Amino acid sequence: MKPAPFRIVRPHDIASAVAQLRQLGDGAKVMAGGQSLGPMLNLRLATPDVVVDISGIAALKSVREEPGHVVYGALVTHADVEDGRVPDVGEHVLRRVAAGIAYRAVRNRGTMGGSLSHADPAADWVNALSALDAAVEIEGPAGRRTLALSAFLTGALSTALGEGEFVVAVRVPKLPASARFGYAKHCRKVGEFAHAVGALVVDPTAGTARALMGAIDAPPLVLADARILFGGAIDGDFAARFDAEAAGAALAAAGLADAVDRHIHVEVLRRAVRQAAGLFSPETRSAA
Amino acid sequence: MSGVETGAIGIQGEGVGARLPRKEDDRLMRGRGQYIADIRLPGMLDVAFVRSPLAHARIRGIHVPADIRDKVFLAADLDGVSPIRAVSGLPGFKVSEQPVLAFEKVRQVGELIAMCVAPTRAEAEDIAARVELDLEELPALYDMLEARKPGAALVHEHWGDNIYLESQVNVGIEAAFDAPVKISRTISTARQCMAPIEGRGTVVHLDHRMEQLVVYTASQMPHIVRSGLSECLGLEEGQIRIISPDVGGGFGYKAILLAEEVCLGWLARKLRQPVRWLEDRREHLTANANCREHHYEITLYADRDGTLRGVDCEATVDSGAYSAYPFSACLEAAQVASILPGPYDFPAYRCRTWSVATNKCPILPYRGVARTGVCFALEVALDCLAAELNLPPEVVRLKNLVRPEQMPFDNITKKHFDGGDYPEALKRALEAIEPEKVRARKAAGPPDGRRLGFGLSIYCEQGAHGTSVYSGWGIPMVPGHEQAGARLTPDGGLELRVGVHSHGQSLETTLAQVAYEVLGIPVARTRLVYGDTAMTPYSTGSWGSRVMVMAGGAVATACTELSERIRRIGAHMLQADPGDVRFEHGRVVGPSGDIGIDEIARTWYRRPQDLPANVDGGGLEVTAGYKPVRDTGTFSYAAHAVVVAVDPEVGDVELLDYVIVEDGGVLVNPMVVDGQIIGGLAQGIGTALYEEMPFDRSGQPLASTLADYLLPGAPEVPAPFIGHMETPSPYTRFGVKGIGEGGAIAPPAAIANAVNDALRPLGVEMLRSPITPRRIVEKVLDARATRRVA
Q1: Integer Cα distance of B722 and B429 in angstroms
Q2: Cβ separation of B650 and A196 shorter than 8 Å?
Q3: Exposure of A100 by Cβ count < 10 A (0-12 exposed, 13-18 middle, 19+ buried)?
């Protein structure tokens, strides 16, 4: 389990990273924290000629707050979020998600931008940030562009990144004070990739809800208008009206053919719903 | 409730029974252990293997590019090397010949095809990647029940079928057929990997001065590896020295002669340069050896009060493509037939077993060997019987457990139980876990949608099997007298030499405690020499819960003999008649004075002029052999009780409470025993809930990393309550019994029983390990659909 030979380059600013990627073309692979790419290199599942290690680019570690958004540099680590070193988009919203990612050793090095670029359907940022309707800022030969995650994530382990492009920042909308966030995942053991993820952003005051079911071997299923899961309307009593059959039907329509899988996904979403409503339910493991 | 009950009360000093901290921890916990991967020899080359990507195929060709031809070795290059033959003398056993590098055919994914050598492992892997294989795929046998059927594809063509061995025990089963109650179940355990933290690894070089091939290898049984290598390489045993340094976990995985070891032995002689192979995790998971895959069709016959009338079983074990050296492909299944009755006394029994060859890697005896499987089958079936009879599971067990007044007891398969009070262990476990309170909480209904369940499991663990047990198997290894060396150093310290290995057993501490018990030499002044065939007496090594009984007995015997030598020299120095002096707490005491070991040692080694000419020339170094009074094995046992919460909607199982009441005879170091139990429990939880090596229909192993092969971590293992009973064995020195494997035997059955107790009201029984969330939800949904139809 040793990687095939590769060269490594370490650009120190975004412009030289873009230039190097353009020059290297297909044979280059961007590495941030290396928590997914590292094992793939060792297993020879990835055999790039050159690894472009962007971890030395200081600009990618900054975080800025804009009205309505927090913009996280792509190199912000899971531990930065978990430990509260960067602002959150609501009270303990991202912090709680970050604390449940893999193991602390992975959280110390793994980055938000790297996780989204790897696009593992079971990854926490892929799911939590999709539920929150985040977007990525992408730098490339043609300059900077911004893509909603729903457009960025094109499949399991696949994104809309073009040749020479890489994620430089993640734009996450701040939650209004009246909104609530529920996030549950199902793992067989602490630190394992999720087998099912459910998330709900709900605002009973505004009467809106956005729901997500993830870890389905494809980008997460997002119901931008999730009122259909609650009898058509959102109010303070939304959790009691959660419609498991509607959620299951949405999964089936999205191609999840296996009934057992659907059942577990729907139950995990139910837990996210109850969490958003402040109700007690058994924590699926490592969802805390 | 958690924590650990103290063992024997009032133990003074450092001898048998003392809870002494481990001597080896100072080295191991500071990262100063020396494992295979820590060994660096000048000019050492690394090896990577080309392994079969297919489970079953004919080799049409192997293409090695010309520029790397001198760095790649194939079967045809290995002149003078014989295949590994792990035979059994049991009648009807079919022998598999395992070529160390495959030729003509490959029979499992991961089988070695070519050996590639380079200055680093990465470069060796680059070379391996350039070797091209031309393979003609054959139908793969991935299911042992299919492989058993006539007309199945053949792993070894000349056998005519895929059965290594078929066996049958029948003790009047017909007498049970008229029992009023009969239940039958199909129960199975998954294929697992043993997953020690340190994988296998081998470094080999030629010692020109000693004219020896020196093989550093992570092994539980260095002397057996030497015999195996000698047979395969055609060398005299004396031409080979095996050094097994610190070993990071064995569990049975390091009790096998590997084809890699044979290959590297040949390569070091060919290249006259040190060579190294370190197993990586993918090789461990997919290629080298698995364990545990059993299938049972079990029927219990009983009276309405729960009295067992008979047990009838058909057991099949997936032994994989080759018979592993030295334990062979049939140990596991044949053991099933002899130990399935467990700690129960019933009058009629039949068990038929099949050891089946498939296109998977060989099966090895993992901690607990077949006991984990038979305990799972019988204990889960017993709970199904209890449910059928509407009796609490403890009532059915108390009806059938062997009673203390029957001891010593020969059970229905002629296993000789050396003592113990099994019902008492169960009663203590029940007192600790309070099932009536669990049942009251259960009846009150789930506060959070989860269902509570209570489960029990009891086993007996035969340990330290001796000559009379193993000679019957006819495998390449039969334990005889265990030997130990004891030598006083000139300054009065003690060196002990043993051929067993310590890789978690804490022998550096516990064997020193045994020596202290006899000689009174402080544990800090005793050093254990082990893991080197050049420096230790022959031994079959560490397996089968034998080291404290066998090596402990041998150390005590050697130290007793040494104390007599010390006493006689002391008598000279005290100028007393030897008949008038005695050895006491590390001193020789005479009529008019006493003298310490230090001074006696100093005089013998450094001032021999002070001793008379007729002093015994044997000196202060002894090698002595030991066998228990009766060598049919010790029987330790335990009752495990567990409370679980099961979430039927997502299939989660949480272990809320875990109680173990264990009787390991006299405990040399109760803290070490607790450690063995807790470590075993973690592995048992892995078997119950997490660990599984799945295969697809082409025989591909599907869990090739630890992201796919799930091992329980610290959050998944609760702190158990451990209670000890200490019924001395009448046959062993100090009354000790083997306890190394027990922790891993009972948990799968106890946890399955608890899950079934929780889910039975929903019409669900889980009869297959591991009990995964998906399997639970699948059964819950099936049961709901069935009820809806009904």
Answers
A1: 9
A2: yes
A3: buried
State the pLDDT confidence band at A21, using cuts at 50, 70 and 90.
very high
| Residue B282 C-alpha, separation from nearest chain A C-alpha, in angstroms | 8
Which alpha helices (H) appear in B234-353, and where do they start and end?
A: 259-271, 281-283, 331-339
The half-sphere exposure of B249 on its side-chain side, counting CA atoms within 13 A, is 14
Tell me how close the Cα of B123 comes to any Cα of chain A, in angstroms.
8
* Residue, of B471 and B731, whose pLDDT is higher: B731
Q: Which CATH number fits domain A7-53: 3.30.70.970, 3.50.30.60, 3.40.50.300, 3.30.43.10?
A: 3.30.43.10
Mutation to test the B interface, candidates A2, A118, A120, most B Cβ within 10 Å:
A2
Q: What's the mean pLDDT in B604-613? A: 96
> Within chain A, which residue ranges are assigned CATH 3.30.390.50?
180-276
ipTM over 0.90: yes
- Name every chain A residue with its beta carbon within 8 A of the beta carbon of B190: none
A58-173 fold:
3.30.465
Q: Is residue A157 less than 8 Å (CB to CB) from chain B?
A: no
Q: What span, in angstroms and rounded, lies between the C-alpha atoms of B306 and B303?
A: 5
Of A259, A268, A280, the CB nearest to B781: A259
The answer to whether the beta carbons of residues B663 and B637 sit under 8 Å apart is: yes
* Gap from A34 CA to chain B (nearest CA, Å): 16
Report the residue from B652, B772, B778 with minimal CB separation from A285. B652
Distance CA B229, CA B104 (A): 23
DSSP 8-state secondary structure symbol assigned to residue B95:
P
Residue of B116, B284, B644, B650 to mutate, interface with A, max A Cβ within 10 Å:
B650
| A-proximal residues of B, 450-509, CB under 8 Å | 450
Within the 249-268 window of chain A, which residues sit less than 8 Å (CB to CB) from chain B? 259-261, 263-264, 267-268
Which of A1, A45, A187, A242 is the best mutation test for B, with the most CBs of B within 10 A? A1
Nearest to B33 by CA among B280, B255, B256, B249: B249
Domain with CATH 3.30.465.10 in chain A: 58-173
pLDDT score, position A283: 57
Nearest residue of B to residue A102, measured between CA atoms: B707
Of all residues in chain A, what percent carry a pLDDT higher than 70?
Answer: 97
Span B501-555, pLDDT tens digits:
999 999 999 999 999 999 999 999 999 999 999 999 999 999 999 999 999 999 9
Per-residue pLDDT of A75-87, as tens digits, reads: 999 999 999 999 9
Tell me the per-residue pLDDT of A211-270, one tens digit each, with 9 for 90 and over. Answer: 999 999 999 999 999 999 999 999 999 999 999 999 999 999 999 999 999 999 999 999
A64–B contact, CB cutoff 8 A: no
CB burial of residue A43 (10 Å; 0-12, 13-18, 19+) = middle
Candidates B280, B707, B713; nearest CB to A1 = B280
Structure confidence by residue, pLDDT tens digits, B570-607:
999 999 999 999 999 899 999 999 999 999 999 999 99
Per-residue pLDDT averaged across B722-735, rounded?
97
Q: Is the CB of residue B393 less than 8 Å from the CB of residue B753?
A: yes
Both tokens of A12, joined, read 């120190």
Q: Which fold has domain A180-276?
A: Enolase-like; domain 1 (3.30.390)
Q: Sorting pLDDT into bands at 50, 70 and 90, what band is B448?
A: confident
* Beta strands B240-243 and B212-217, pairing class: parallel
The segment(s) of chain A belonging to CATH 3.30.43.10 are 7-53
Cα A201 from Cα A227, distance rounded (Å): 11
Share of chain B above pLDDT 70, in %: 98
pTM of the model as a whole: 0.96
